[in-house]
Amino acid sequence: MKNKSEPLNPWSFVAIVCSIGMCPFFTIAGVLLGVRALVDIKARPGTRGIRLAWAAIFIGSLVTGLWGGGMLWWNINVRGQMQHGAVNAIIEGESNKLDFLSYFTNQNQTEATEFIATLHSRYGNLISGKQVESTQVEGEELAFFMMPLQANLKYELHFTDAPEISATAKFVLFDKVDEGRQFTNKFAWICIHDEIRGDLTYPPHVVMDGENE
Length: 213
Prior knowledge:
Number of helices: 5
CATH topology of the largest domain: Nuclear Transport Factor 2, Chain: A
Order of helices and strands: HHHHHEEEEEEE
Number of strands: 7
Shape: elongated
CATH class of the largest domain: Alpha Beta
Largest sheet: 5 strands, antiparallel
Strand order of the largest sheet: 1-4-5-6-7
Structural class: alpha+beta
Distance between the termini: 74 Å
Helix content: 40-55%
């Protein structure tokens, strides 16, 4: 048993500090430093800190796992929604209007049916599409100091009867509810830009932030 009068191994101290860090790089370092502390304590019998080193390894592994799981969930459910949600909404909506509506905060089946029908009559079936730009809605806050709560996303769409059509969709990560925020992760509207036949929007007559100025 280690004597409390023995000096604390510095690697144990640094490891526990890193293991509770707010960044996965620090938590991973906490695990590695914890292992380093165990090796160093064994090599230097005059120092203590084995329990602290094991605590750093456990906490660092746990927090790193939480960080990794959180980032994976975010990449699939939020980043994936931003990159592909508007495109998937149209593709799925061509066969099922309810699938189209599931991507939007405003859910009106009649308006959705008219939008998809007009879109198909103009351009045919949607083959593919990709997000090309993202701009924060003016005045909106940032989630986690880096992610806009609401953003206007621009897409390039490729239809069977139109090789390249541009579109803009307003993505709502968090929506205002009473005095708080509610996780939404859907689109408020989508606009298909067409200078010849006129823009096509869902919902119709929507006020598009920053798009009609």
